[in-house]
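Fold sample X.
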Amino acid sequence: MARRRSTARIGVTGLGEREELAQGVFINTNYRGCTPGFVYTDEGIILIDSPLIPKQAMDWRAQIEEQYPDSPFLFMVNTDHHRGHALGNQYFMPVKVIAHERAFKEMSGYTENFKERVRNSFKREPEIQAQLNNIVIVPPHVTFTNRATLLYGDRRVELIYVGGHTPATSIAWLPDESVCFVGDILWVDQHPYMAQGNTLEWIRALELVRELGAELLVPGHGPIVGPEATYRVGEYIEFMRMRVRDFYLEGRNKNETKSGLVGEMLEWFPVPPERKAKIESQIKSGINRVFREIQREEEEAAGITSSDAGDEEEFDE
């Protein structure tokens, strides 16, 4: 049975102590951007996702090295290419970054404009913005297509491509410890970011996670949960698909669908007043994505050929 213990050491930008989920398997839920983790093996450390904010990334590295001072970093697994999961890679060198092959494509295309937009997103937090003056993009050194298995010491970490949230989204499954790092496939009491999503893949990914038999799931953001937590986000996606199809079949266009549906979607998860505008924008981008999916499905059913508009540019937090 996986065991848990936790402590807290909260600082200005959310520094906090790690939590042990199973023997030698740790996470930190106090950081902004994602919940990073690491797995200790007799041969070294396997890291899972990297904190976005430099001070937090350096704190995370310091915590790991304090506990395991003689253990090298073997791999940094990025569950997707988004900034909250991969932009902190530079603070864990030397390490081999491993991710899905699409993550390499996306990260290799990050430009100076992308870096500037990251910095500008923190313009209301100058203390954090100042930390982001020397962003170095470290794309994957090793990629996989469907599955990869890391075997070190007596540890087995299975990397499984699932898609859904992004074309690069993967999960890290520790079968012996019954712990699964599910990335942004799972959002707990939060509206999922769907602008790059494929909802049918996403629903299948949630089913796959449930079939693994994990006791503990580590979402990309939010608290540790059991597999039952996957149902709510799946219902949210299925509801959005159903309602977008309703609007589409009524002859509504994309903008009419977004305007008419955003209020219904807001009710699904808590919305802090100070984040309402941002969450509404996020929901609209998801509806926009789903509208294109439903349009394509309906046109294919009617024998009409249409071209895919492609992925929206990512910029979730």
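Fold sample Y, listed below.
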Amino acid sequence: MSVIGLLAFTNLNSVKAQDVNTDTAAQTEVTEDSAAAVAEEAVAEPVAAATDEEVESKSFHEVLKEKYIQGGAGWMTPVLLCLILGMALVIERIIYLNMSTTNVDALLNGIEDNVKKGDYNAAKELCRNTRGPVASIFYQGLDRVNEGLENVEKAVTSYGGVQMARLEANLTWIALFIALAPSFGFLGTVIGMVQAFDDIEKAGDISPTVVAGGMKVALLTTVFGLIVAIILQIFYNYLLTKIENLVSQMEDGSITFMDILIKNRK
């Protein structure tokens, strides 16, 4: 009996030891799995962060270049040319109009002082040395003082029309580029949509990927065309406002100029 009891006790201890070893191994496996999962998450987070940083680190020019390529160089290039040529004309007009701005009151005061003295040559010299269309108009009037006030008025009116035409030069080309930019964009969009439907026909199925990709590329030309038109339109309206102010100065100055000649006529 003692021998049987000893053997039973030994077997019981062996079973308990095996159970303990099994539990320890299971816990070890769980710990290793958890550590592996944490390591994977730790590796995934920097990768995701790096991806986000790469997206955020793209400069504005890189994004524009990417969208330009996606829209297709064949249709984006005409839109870009409209922007370049339109802005070149806008800059030229801004410089010309700024150079045409004159202090009309100071010029009229100088002319009046010389006319009161009877020194019309000094008045003409003052107009010759003053830049701007207003001074040119006054010079043409002073150059015909000896022909009578009626001829002076005709000269001022006629040369005022010439100067107004010079102020409005190249505006028609800017307006043309404002109209062409979205037109090229819409044309590129229509052709892109046709190509998208061709891709659908070839695939034999309306796949969202095919449709969305084709539509995105097609609509990019319209977006860029509208942006170019908006930019040029803003500058175009600014130029019109500038020209209206100069024309108003020319008209008011011409009236005052004629009054000065009438008051001091020979």
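Sample Y note: Residues 63-263 form one domain.
Also: The chain has nine helices and no strands.
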